[in-house]
């Protein structure tokens, strides 16, 4: 199993858990859990594959991904009531999903020998778009756009860290690890310690 | 004309009617009706074709689909005021659209000799995504996520029924009919008699 | 540089400015500005390229587009507070973006020798979908669906004007200019003078 496949599996599993948690907040039935789990789990990677013209799309060519997402939906359906704050779980699971999806996106572009900036963009897109679809469909405020938190920034920082390591070595593993660690570190720092970039504040126009 | 083409025509026509009805609820002008009719009519099938890498996308290769959608938009623009409850019409038309779009999605995947689970997924995706786009764009609560109704479940049930028939016969027609009938039966039962799966209810966490 | 490339550059630049302006209204950080600028700038053209199966997608094959969008995001981040009404700027910039994106969409389909109606549809889709994604993601009322304004209608009118010129000449330039001028004229007339098509008004059903 390649590093890319492994990252895709992990990303699908964790994003599916977050999709099912959002379904539990919307009080859907078990099929609604599965629907949201699948959209969230494969959304980002599907956009990546369509943009890079990878054929077939990763989950069309390998059904394991879908079964993982369905398993995650069933698991959450029967256990979500046991946790105290589902929103906290959602936030933290989503942070792990982001941290594996960004290197998964980079790896797919690296395998295709894309230039550096495209590798970075595919990492950010794969990381952010599955969760964005989940939140838009369920009409939640998209995590990626929450004011005063690092999210797209964490994805971008991780992808740039991976790119920096790529300049130093031709091995794939260190690149992916640097990317995942930086992404998660930035996102976790934002959740725990309130790390943020300055947000835009409109000031009155000059006289 | 193949069964696939016929199903695509029917699905485009009925989904276009629902898109135009949503446009009438948003009080758009005639071009807005056409815009919403087209997005709703071809949205699900377009995603299906992009995922399966069918070239060209069905409506790019055959303009009849677009003309059908435009005709439906004009028809609704001049007649919607004559019906008493547009929302009721919307719900019922949408149930028929779902019941033809699910087998249309399955048929496209069957023609490409995809494995069973992909056939089921393409049926569900083709059935649900056009309406989902319509509702997200118009900021209505997506029908697919309405609590306590069978929608994605109806699509999934229909696709699984079609798959079951596929195990018994190599003929396409019985598969598509079983799928359409089951999908519509489940959806109609939900609208008429309130059939539903148990929805997730959060309970307080265990002590 | 071909006319198509030039139009794509202009459309990416102006749509990126509108995406960053929406980010400033949502008070995002600089990476949020870049994220929204990129989605808005390349959204419509990406859908066009995926639908027409153009490979690679325009910005994957030429990184300049992304750098233009990033530059626009940085520019707006540091200057948006200087303007008095950001919403007015947003509306007017968006009108120019629409007026270059519609011919950009047409040009791509013309190069591929698509039939007339597909050329028109690609123009409308390229023009409208980037802004639609921007507004759906940020949960603003989509400009394309604003009641009593010409938007999709302006795009359609421009595309039809371009098509009419295409019947008279085999030169590309006059087609694109007619399309851009008509689109912008209709949209500007709607913003300045309130031009509109009659909107649908529900009347009570007949007895």
Structural account:
- The structure is a homotrimer of 207-residue chains.
- The first copy, chain A, has 207 residues and is mainly alpha-helical.
- The first copy, chain A, has a domain at 3-143.
- In chain A, 73% of the residues lie in helices and 0% in strands.
- Chain A contains eight helices and no strands.
- The first copy, chain A, has helices at 3-25, 30-51, 58-61, 64-79, 86-111, 116-137, 152-168, 172-193.
- In chain A, helix 1 (3-25) crosses helix 2 (30-51).
- Chain A is globular.
- The model of chain A has no long low-confidence stretch (mean pLDDT 89).
- Chain A binds chain C through residues 50-53, 114-115, 117-118, 121, 124, 128, 132, 136, 141-142, 144-145, 147-148, 152-153, 156, 196-206, and chain C through 23-24, 26-35, 38, 46, 50, 55-57, 60, 63, 66, 77, 80-84, 86, 136-139.
């Amino acid at each position: 199993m390649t590093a890319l496949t492994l990252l895709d599996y992990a990303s699908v599993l964790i994003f599916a858990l977050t999709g099912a948690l959002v379904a539990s907040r919307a009080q859907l039935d078990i099929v609604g859990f599965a629907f949201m789990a699948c959209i969230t789990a494969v959304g980002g990677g599907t956009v990546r594959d369509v943009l890079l013209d990878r054929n077939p799309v990763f989950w069309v060519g390998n059904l394991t991904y879908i079964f993982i997402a369905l398993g995650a939906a069933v698991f959450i359906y029967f256990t979500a009531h046991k946790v105290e704050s589902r929103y906290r779980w959602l936030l933290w699971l989503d942070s792990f999903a982001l941290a594996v999806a960004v290197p998964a996106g980079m790896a797919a572009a690296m395998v295709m020998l894309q230039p550096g900036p495209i590798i970075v963009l595919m990492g950010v897109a794969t990381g952010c778009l599955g969760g964005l679809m989940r939140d838009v469909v369920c009409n939640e405020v998209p995590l990626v756009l929450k004011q005063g938190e690092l999210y797209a920034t964490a994805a971008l920082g991780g992808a740039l860290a991976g790119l920096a390591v790529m300049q130093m070595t031709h091995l794939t593993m260190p690149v992916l690890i640097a990317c995942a660690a930086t992404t998660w570190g930035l996102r976790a720092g934002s959740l725990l310690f309130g790390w943020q970039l300055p947000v835009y504040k409109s000031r009155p126009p000059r006289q």
